[in-house]
Amino acid sequence: MHGITDNLSSKMEDYLETIFILKKETGVARVGEIAKSLKVKSSSVNSAVNFLKEHGLVIHEKYGYVRLTKEGDRIASEVKSKHDIFFRFLTEFLMLDPKKAEKEACSIEHAISKETFQRLTKLFKFLEDGFKEGKPRILEKFEIYLKTGKRKKCEREKSCR
Amino acid sequence: MHGITDNLSSKMEDYLETIFILKKETGVARVGEIAKSLKVKSSSVNSAVNFLKEHGLVIHEKYGYVRLTKEGDRIASEVKSKHDIFFRFLTEFLMLDPKKAEKEACSIEHAISKETFQRLTKLFKFLEDGFKEGKPRILEKFEIYLKTGKRKKCEREKSCR
DNA sequence: TAAAATATTAAGGCATGGCTAACATTAAAG
DNA sequence: CTTTAATGTTAGCCATGCCTTAATATTTTA
């Protein structure tokens, strides 16, 4: 279905992600900025952009801005989301040092599956809701939540294990 | 301190891990078995083994068994432990399909830090202990546990949030 | 002790991804 | 407007990593 799209190298994912972030932060992505972000030379960016263009992930006219196609944007935001959720997991859940977590998220973002991403997202949602509603018998409740999509309050009378 | 040791490529880590596992399962690791495990040719294993030997991670005499040095064993078991803990996390915590989890653990094992590994290990220990003792106000308790190394019972009277 | 199985070496291929240097285009400043 | 500075592009090249085949060497086994 997606051709090369789901076989993209980490580096290419990094390029997409960088373009995505620059666009969000500054409105546009230019070759020079991408290069600066990734600490490579402009010529390297150029090769990458050509590659991504050939695969329908970016739009780029000579000397112009680099923009993501719909598909490119989908992939980029997916990578970014994986990064973010894992960063959250590392810092909020495992309570790791944010600086280390940030670095680590950069490698893990390329390694985790969509499904893991989705589960982590649900986990956080579950925790947030759980804390609002009452005590989180976290694992049990999360399991139920995953299975049924619903949450169950913690019955006071039970052993509350 | 460790030279190349902490800059080992994923592939080299895979070789070490495979040797580690074969040794545990069958008593010895032979070139052919490593090749079969990793689905590469023996000659590829040979190059890898030479590389690892040069870096003091394996011991290998021509036509003999491949054995891990102390350092090689340390790294291998570290990788394997990362694999295992992440597999547990994916299956027990996020409740992912074991087959997918197994595959995913294979990539993540190379990407997670020692510290993340340690925290995950503690998380599981914490959960196990928590379930024995009483209810796990998981996040709060885990945070205390990480900070102090001790666990705190869930007070019934409090809102039990 | 010859055949089969296994291991090693040598040579090379290919993918990835970076670089420099020369050139082209665009933007800015006089 | 035109020169200069900044930016982008292209071409050619190189390093790394990791795999392969084919030829050779050693060990095992029948």
Helix and strand pattern of chain A = HHHEEHHHH
Q: What is the number of strand segments of chain A?
A: 2
CATH superfamily of the largest domain in chain A: Winged helix-like DNA-binding domain superfamily/Winged helix DNA-binding domain
> Judging from the principal axes of the Cα atoms, what is the shape of chain A?
elongated
- Characterize the quaternary organization of these chains: homodimer
CATH architecture of the largest domain in chain A, by name, is Orthogonal Bundle
Share in β-strands of chain A = under 5%
Give the number of helices of chain A: 7
Low-confidence stretches of chain A: 152-161
Which two chains have the most extensive interface, and how many residues on each?
A-B, 33 and 34 residues
Quick overview of this protein structure:
Two copies of one chain form a homodimer. Chain A has helices at residues 10-26, 31-38, 42-54, 70-93, 98-108, 114-133, 138-148; strands at 58-60, 66-68. By secondary structure, chain A is mainly alpha-helical.
